[in-house]
């Protein structure tokens, strides 16, 4: 686990500056390689093979072919691949997975990525061919950014801040500010910096150094496996148990201490319970909020007691949170997208101090098991709304027949899944974003609609599966960016067992009623006149198959308690947060005033004062996050 840097020319000073910029990711070692064609840099967090032999950049040579690599991540099945490659005549000087990647590339070329089970972002320099091969793992657990210069050279890195060490004009991608407010991150390959792009999850790139040309392609996308369409529920439970156990076991491979982030919710509790099967000394960590109804610490303690883990807690109040947010905003080169990212940053700092360098967490479960219960039930709203399209006056009929649906969708007859997503998914409604941002090109800023449409059209399946596919491709990478940044900026590696691609492919293939069934026929009948918001977790059961598997693993009250999702107690901090927002957003040196008029910010803060809605407070927090980012990373 590390940070990588590079570019397609020779410059020792620049690579040193890039490495220094991301040194927090890899405090154990650093290095660089350069020749007349490329310069590669690496900072290392030693997790597997702690010896100097595993130093990067790493070289491998066979039969006259020479390749170099800089690599960030873990290949969990590297020992199996190593044996396969040894049988083909390859020899190894280290015990690292890095060397296995190089040999795999020489044997299978760019198709080697299909052999890997793990998380990665790497760049391989093929000396003989004069090419750079870049790749990112299937689900986007590890980040990789790149920039094509005016003279068609390439610069790449694990973080944007390293790319900014070059003489690049730092220009804000203004039309993407609205995307950040709506979706907590930038959709697709763009970033908030003009010209700096993300290599998307499941994608690879080949850059030809001689021709200064490049090609990007998608090597993996999730598909439902037809063999699981008719699987029995009992067999599905057994298969899920086997895959989750296998995934957790793989992610415990390390030459350093491994712990778990434990919220007291279903997902993290299941990860910790499965860890206990392979380790007598499970170490768990929890964030607590003093005297708050949003504190989940007691539930985490119950899980810890149940599995017998060595449990640690940190306590955060408003002032610690703000102090942590300001510190983190100076480090993170993109706006903080999710409030609990700050808490995760502070927790990771504590984890590192405790001598634990790897943690497992529960990310990804909601996307595959239909955990966002209200929105994952929304296709049922669509089914009923479509009935009214055949009436001469559909809206009047809808208002009479299903008034709750009429009110929920503001008197609109929503008929397509993409329109449902555009209505329900944004944190800030599009019309509000359009009204508050200066110099906002409304048409140009709607590029996300094309991205959403493309994603939804990539699979031919029912709308529940399409929704899961959307969240895996759009929502999940934004959350994973939060996990990588918050942990790696403290030199802690986060691993996500629910995102083992074999497990993801299996769960995605299961019938919908294994994941989100009705509680009973009576509940189904009662739900017919209600909205998905009123139905979720009252008339149906979200993450059903995971909950059934959990019955033999963790306490019942953990399984069936209402999902909280690692909330921050903003409503309890309301007065303090208002004062902080006014100080930051309305001061003379405020940067956000260039993008959002002062009067609009005043009005939004006033509305927040009068409103106890979590959405209202989230919007104010996002403006604060944007302000801090502009102060530290703006033009």
In short:
With 635 residues, the chain is α+β, with helices and mostly antiparallel strands.
Textual characterization of the structure:
This protein is an alpha+beta fold. The strands form 3 sheets. A 6-stranded antiparallel sheet has the order 2-3-1-9-8-10. Strands 4-5-6-7-11-12 form a 6-stranded antiparallel sheet. The mean pLDDT is 94.
Global geometry: globular
Structural class: alpha+beta
Tell me the β content.
Answer: 15-25%
Distance between the termini: 31 Å
Task: Note the main attributes of this structure.
single chain; 635 residues; alpha+beta; Glutamine Phosphoribosylpyrophosphate, subunit 1, domain 1; Rossmann fold; 3 domains; six-stranded antiparallel sheet; 28 helices; 17 strands
How would the blueprint of this fold be written?
Elements: E1 2-7, H1 12-21, E2 29-34, E3 39-44, E4 58-62, E5 65-75, H2 78-87, H3 97-108, E6 118-126, E7 131-136, E8 145-148, E9 154-157, H4 160-163, H5 177-183, E10 196-198, E11 203-208, E12 213-218, H6 233-250, E13 258-261, H7 266-276, E14 283-289, H8 297-307, E15 310-316, H9 318-331, H10 340-353, E16 358-360, H11 365-369, H12 373-376, H13 378-387, H14 394-401, H15 403-408, H16 417-424, H17 430-436, H18 447-457, H19 463-488, E17 493-495, H20 501-509, H21 512-515, H22 521-527, H23 532-535, H24 544-550, H25 556-560, H26 574-585, H27 598-609, H28 614-633
Parallel strand pairs: 13-14, 13-16, 14-15, 16-17
Antiparallel strand pairs: 1-3, 1-9, 2-3, 4-5, 5-6, 6-7, 7-11, 8-9, 8-10, 11-12
């Amino acid at each position: 686990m590390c940070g990588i840097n590079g570019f397609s020319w020779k410059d020792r000073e620049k690579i040193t500056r890039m490495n220094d910029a991301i040194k927090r990711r890899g405090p154990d070692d650093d290095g660089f390689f350069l020749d007349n064609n490329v310069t590669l840099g690496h900072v290392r967090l030693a997790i597997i093979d702690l010896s100097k032999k595993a130093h990067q950049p790493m070289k491998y040579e066979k039969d006259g072919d020479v390749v170099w690599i800089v690599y960030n991540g873990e290949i969990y099945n590297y020992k199996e691949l190593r044996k396969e490659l040894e049988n083909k005549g390859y020899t190894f000087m280290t015990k690292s997975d890095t060397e296995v990647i190089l040999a795999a590339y020489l044997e299978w070329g760019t198709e080697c990525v299909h052999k890997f089970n793990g998380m990665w972002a790497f760049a391989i320099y093929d000396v003989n061919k004069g090419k750079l091969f870049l790749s990112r793992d299937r689900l986007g657990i590890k980040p990789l950014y790149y920039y094509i210069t005016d003279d068609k050279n390439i610069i790449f890195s694990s973080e944007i801040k390293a790319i900014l060490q070059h003489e690049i004009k730092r220009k804000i991608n203004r039309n993407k500010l609205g995307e950040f407010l709506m979706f907590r991150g930038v959709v697709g390959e763009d970033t908030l910096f003009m010209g700096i792009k993300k290599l998307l999850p499941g994608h690879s790139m080949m850059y030809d150094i001689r021709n200064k040309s490049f090609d990007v392609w998608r090597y993996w996308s999730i598909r439902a496996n037809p063999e699981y369409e008719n699987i029995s529920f009992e067999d599905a439970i057994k298969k899920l148990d086997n895959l989750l156990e296998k995934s957790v076991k793989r992610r415990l491979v390390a030459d350093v201490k491994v712990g778990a982030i434990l919220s007291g919710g279903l997902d993290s509790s299941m990860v910790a319970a499965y860890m206990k099967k392979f380790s007598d000394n499970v170490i768990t960590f929890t964030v607590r909020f003093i005297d708050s109804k949003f504190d989940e610490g007691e539930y985490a303690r119950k899980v810890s007691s149940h599995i017998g883990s060595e449990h640690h807690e940190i306590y955060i109040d408003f002032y610690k949170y703000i102090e942590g947010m300001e510190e983190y905003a100076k480090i993170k080169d993109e706006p903080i997208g999710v409030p609990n990212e700050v808490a995760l940053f502070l927790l990771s700092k504590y984890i590192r101090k405790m001598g634990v360098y790897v943690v497992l967490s529960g990310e990804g479960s909601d996307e595959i098991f239909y955990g966002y219960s209200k929105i994952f039930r929304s296709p049922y709203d669509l089914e009923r709304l479509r009935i009214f399209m055949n009436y001469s006056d559909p809206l009047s009929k809808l208002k009479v027949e299903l008034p709750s649906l009429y009110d929920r969708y503001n008197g609109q007859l929503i008929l397509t899944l993409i329109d449902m997503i555009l209505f329900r998914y944004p944190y800030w409604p599009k019309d509000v974003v359009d009204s508050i941002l200066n110099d906002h090109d409304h048409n140009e800023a709607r590029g996300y609609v094309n991205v959403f449409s493309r994603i939804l059209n990539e699979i031919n399946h029912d709308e529940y599966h399409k929704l899961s596919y959307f969240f895996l491709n759009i929502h999940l990478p934004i959350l994973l960016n939060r996990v990588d940044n918050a942990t790696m900026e403290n030199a802690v590696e986060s691993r996500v067992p629910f995102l083992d691609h074999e497990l993801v492919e299996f769960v995605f293939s299961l019938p919908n009623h294994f994941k989100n069934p009705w509680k009973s026929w009576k509940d189904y009948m009662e739900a017919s006149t209600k909205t998905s918001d009123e139905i979720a977790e009252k008339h149906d059961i979200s993450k059903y198959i995971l909950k059934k598997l959990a019955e033999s693993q963790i306490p019942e009250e953990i399984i069936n308690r209402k999902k909280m999702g690692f909330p921050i107690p903003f409503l309890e901090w309301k007065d303090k947060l208002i004062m902080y927002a006014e100080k930051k957003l309305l001061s003379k040196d405020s940067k956000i005033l260039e993008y959002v008029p002062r009067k609009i910010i005043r009005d939004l803060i006033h509305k927040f004062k009068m409103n106890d809605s979590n959405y209202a407070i989230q919007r104010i927090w996002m403006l604060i996050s944007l302000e801090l980012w502009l102060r530290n990373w703006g033009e």
